Amino acid sequence: MYNDNERNNYEPNYSYRPNYDEPLPIPEAPQSTPPKKSNHRMAKRIVAGVLCGALLIGGSFSAGWFIKDRLLNQKDETSIMVSQRELPEVTQVNVNGTDKLTYTEIYNANVDSCVSINASSTSYNFFMQPVETASSGSGFIITEDGYIVTNYHVISGSNSVSVTLDDGTTYEAKVVGGDEDYDIAVLKVDPGDTKLQPVVLGTSGSLQVGDEVVAIGNPLGELTFSMSEGIVSCVNREINVDGTPFNMIQITAAINEGNSGGPLFNIYGEVVGIVSAKYSTSSSGNAVEGLGFAIPMDDVLTMIKDIMENGQVTTRPYLGISAWYDSQPQVSGVSAGVYVESVEAGGPAEKAGLQAGDVITMIGSSIISNRDDINSLSKTYKAGDTVTITYVRDGQVATTELTFGSTTDASTTSTETTIQPEADSGRGTYPYGGDMDEFFEQFFGTSYSSGKAA
């Protein structure tokens, strides 16, 4: 028999003794090896991973490039700025002589009154062979029924003349008449039932240096209905154009060949002059710019009306003498003046008591040094005017009152015994025909005289 104490004191002869107070360890479950997958499915996953990575890398690269481009090149971007301003509507205005107009309004109000002129003529060359030539110029309409004003040199010697309006309408024109020395001519077209739009004529006497002016014409005969602007540089400028003295309005507006005969407008849109000439070179041969000239409208308006009514200038003053260019001092003993070679029977000079051998030294209060002075003063007077003539005869100074006649009175007399104001100023002619300007232009490409018609 044994008791519990004895049992508890009993020790078996093996080393393991379980401790029932400690939990028994739970054995780990055996780990299973996953099944081996096939190589085909693995390849698909690898490819998919590569593509995904490529997309991620490409997207990151593109995004980086875009951000870099925007940051680095932001200032170099090209852009087009388009104005959102509403353009003003240009309305057709009427020239009333009171309201100042913009350049655009002047052009729109008058371009339909301006014309391009084309003239054909027959001339002769150095060998007297006929040569057909064409010239172009400008003009402007002054009446609804088709009267047109231009320069005489535009249509001089022409066989036919045509005029073209801004809308392209072309008319054959008839030369009503003109005056070479005043360089004005009047044409007439037949518009039928159509009423043409005339310009409004103004007064050139109101022009002052610095006033704005514009010209509309056909420079070079090609750039039709072009407008140029400028200011008045001088009024009453005396210049010599192809041997003829003129009283001109000097302007800075661009003037070129083909502008001749076109209108010169003031800032009110009125015609105050006829564009006639320009200077391209000085007397010393230097090139010049900005020297254009226009005939004052006040000087020729009466003549234009005269040509419209009578086909010529009937109010042009007439002396009735034949004279040398200068005073012929070796004969008369007078150093300056105009030597009277002969006097027309019954003419104004004979009625005033002038004789062959007299030397005219003054007309009115103006000193006469040569025939150019007479030509210049002739534009101051008209037929019927009376003036005091101062002359020298046999060394004695005398005066007489002379009443100018009309050039129409001299039409039946011999040109050898008459001299009209504005006659040839002694420039000279070439023996084979044509004057010196024509000869120099044809063979040397330059003008003999300082001024040149546009």
Give me a quick take on this structure.
A six-stranded antiparallel barrel has the order 1-2-3-6-5-4. Strands 7-8-9-12-11-10 form a six-stranded antiparallel β-barrel. Strands 14, 15, 16, 17, 18 and 19 form a six-stranded antiparallel beta sheet that branches. It has nine helices and 21 strands.
Descriptive keywords:
single chain, Pdz3 Domain, 30% strand, alpha+beta, six-stranded antiparallel beta barrel, elongated, six-stranded antiparallel barrel, 454 residues, Thrombin, subunit H
Explained architecture:
With 454 residues, the chain is α+β, with helices and mostly antiparallel strands. Among the domains are: 103-314, Thrombin, subunit H (Beta Barrel), CATH 2.40.10.120; 317-421, Pdz3 Domain (Roll). It has helices at residues 4-8, 39-72, 103-110, 152-155, 297-310, 329-332, 348-351, 371-377, 436-444; strands at residues 114-124, 130-141, 147-150, 158-164, 170-179, 184-188, 212-217, 226-241, 244-251, 263-266, 271-278, 292-296, 317-318, 321-323, 338-343, 359-363, 366-367, 386-393, 396-403, 405-406, 452-453. The strands form 4 sheets. A 6-stranded antiparallel barrel has the order 1-2-3-6-5-4. Strands 7-8-9-12-11-10 form a 6-stranded antiparallel barrel. A hairpin with a 5-residue loop joins β1 (114-124) and β2 (130-141).
Distance between the termini: 164 Å
Sum up the overall morphology in one term: elongated
Strand content: 25-35%
Name of the top-level CATH class of the domain at 103-314: Mainly Beta
Structural class: alpha+beta
Order of helices and strands: HHHEEEHEEEEEEEEEHEEHEHEEHEEEHE
The CATH topology of the domain at 103-314 turns out to be: Thrombin, subunit H
In DSSP terms (H or I, runs of 4 or more residues), the helix count works out at: 9
Order of strands, widest sheet: 1-2-3-6-5-4
Mean pLDDT: 78
CATH architectural arrangement of the domain at 103-314: Beta Barrel
Q: Any idea what the radius of gyration is?
A: 49 Å
What is the β-strand count? Answer: 21
Largest sheet: 6 strands, antiparallel, barrel
Q: Percentage of helical residues?
A: 10-25%
